[in-house]
């Protein structure tokens, strides 16, 4: 009998029973008040007079009126650079214990995003919320005795002066509660290995000794890990070695594009739970099985604002224009794309995280990621968001009975002086490229009226090249590194696309 599992599930049930339904709108007002109160004597809080904002009748509105939008570059240039020089109380009290290194999807240069002790506590609180919400998924009691494989960046953080540096997944894993360490795999020793391929090799070699019940990580890297384990042990699917695998917790990217290839590695269905952990904080987590939408973590150190997604509000470099209007949680609507803006206990203020979301349920504060501001393709007025591109890829998968786990696209001017959408698809699809291009084109014209109009004017046509998916992984390895929070850029500018095409030709 699963005695320990019964105890753990009983605790989760009790915690869930004792916790009342969150009023997310009121929770957000309280979070903003606490942020301003805590940071009012910092350099940033003094400069923008947080004291006055706190005493105003409408704190949310005055906060939005007085504080400009920032992205990483502008906040780092004006404020965070002082932290790197050793100054304290810059945008948050004291000094951060960690810096999250993030190259995101834009290149080799790492951003250094402050991660304070308060943010670590907020991430842990959101993690507890995720664990307690497992009660909603009707999992058997023995699940709570199984190991959990968390595959992120190396937990061997670099010590620099008075802080540590690493990717947020490595920072989070290095701060797991002591009681969780018995369940955590691949374990501290393997998790510290910096080289991705070496780490996965060790995972494959030790796989038989673990009873994995849940996997957690970016879909593309979890797939590569599972494939390595399958190949190493000459298996048909991952359940042959981990028969009790029941849950996969995705993170940071939409799971949809990976669903077909992911399921191909399984022997039976698993429960997929989406989460949204970014370098700047733990944004959201799925809390119920009736939907694949995620609930914003409205109580844990992050204040959210939402800018309606409109090309007129976005600069060429993907940053946001200062005249763009922002909405509070109380003002948003469902099924509308918004640019996500956050203020946090790590001292990010009105910060453009770079993602776009839409609400599926405002009262429950449930969202879906719809894309990236930098991946919004509008070079010739086509207004293609990543979710529309993902839908098109899914259509191609169904139409041609194939799997496409990675892709990238550029609005490229060809030798004839005309613009074409040039797609690279990661697949073993053997059909004629022109036939695939026509299917993509037809689907997008049907799904997006702006695209249809652009195709009649400035957008001449669509070109497709099908390449091995490994080429995408090698590109990431060459330009950033494998594993962790690294994600393939879905849309490239022409200059970078030229480098990509040279890399593909060499590969």
UniProtKB/TrEMBL annotation:
One of its GO terms (molecular function) is acid-amino acid ligase activity. Transmembrane segments: none annotated. Residues 390-495 form the GH3 C-terminal domain. GO terms for cellular component: cytoplasm. Residues 299-363 form the GH3 middle domain. This is GH3 auxin-responsive promoter.
